[in-house]
Amino acid sequence: MMLFIQENLDGITAVSDEKTLSIYKLIMESGTGGLMIIALLFVLLAIALYIYFERFFAIKAAAKVDENFMNQIKDFVSDGKLEAATELCNVTDSPTSRLIGKGISRIGKPLDDINKAIENSGKLEVYKLERNVSVLATIAGAAPMIGFLGTVIGMIVAIHEIANSGGQIDIKLLSDGLYTAMTTTVAGLIVGIIAYVTYNHLVVRTDKVVYQMEAKSVEFLDLLNDPA
């Protein structure tokens, strides 16, 4: 009876050992091609995370506008204190203040010219906010394809090794090759998903800042139409 139980325990232990999966071991044993693919994906992940956090804090800073900013601008413009209004825009570091400052510098010209100047300045501000964000979209699309490339390379290597074994299918050799091939696909999908989510998050936050700039610009133009 004790011998039977011991044999069962040994069998369970063996099965447990066989099912143990080490991602690190799979990566390190994936061959030169697999290691190059994984290394490239890690580089893309690092780039994506850097761009996301750099743009996130830049957009967050751009979204901060003093609630009294427009009230002060209205008071200065109504009183004819254009220099004071320009100085306020210069000391307030935000896309909205730069748009309003551009509009103030055009006061005295036709309203269409002022509106055009604000629109052109707004395009430049949006371009600054969206700097490098398109790289995230590129990584989101390229990472899964790079991972799939690693899968194809792994499958080719596995089939080549099986062919060189004299036509006899070695299940262990085949399973190792499949594990290695799938590892690159998983890594590519993970990087792609992270880049896709971060890209969309930045787009949403940028749209909010753009809407804020448009609202303040309209408010400024309304002020010029009716300074009183």
Report on this model:
The protein has 228 residues and is mostly helical. It has one domain (32-59, 67-228). Helices cover 85% and strands 0% of the residues. The chain is built from nine helices and no strands. The protein has helices at residues 2-19, 23-28, 31-62, 69-78, 82-91, 95-105, 111-129, 133-164, 171-225. α3 packs antiparallel against α8, α6 (95-105) packs antiparallel against α7 (111-129) and α7 (111-129) packs antiparallel against α9. The chain is rod-shaped and about 95 Å long.
Observed structural traits:
228 residues, rod-shaped
Précis, in short:
This is Biopolymer transporter ExbB. The protein has about 230 residues and is mainly α. It has helices at about 1-20, 25-30, 30-60, 70-80, 80-90, 95-105, 110-130, 135-165, 170-225.
| Residues in helix, % | over 70%
Beta-strand proportion: under 5%
**What are the segments in which pLDDT stays under 50 over at least 5 consecutive residues?**
1-9, 11-19
Could you tell me how far the N terminus lies from the C terminus, measured between alpha carbons in angstroms? 101 Å
Rounded Rg:
30 Å
Largest sheet: none
Order of helices and strands: HHHHHHHHH
**What is the overall shape?**
rod-shaped
Layout of helices and strands:
Elements: H1 2-19, H2 23-28, H3 31-62, H4 69-78, H5 82-91, H6 95-105, H7 111-129, H8 133-164, H9 171-225
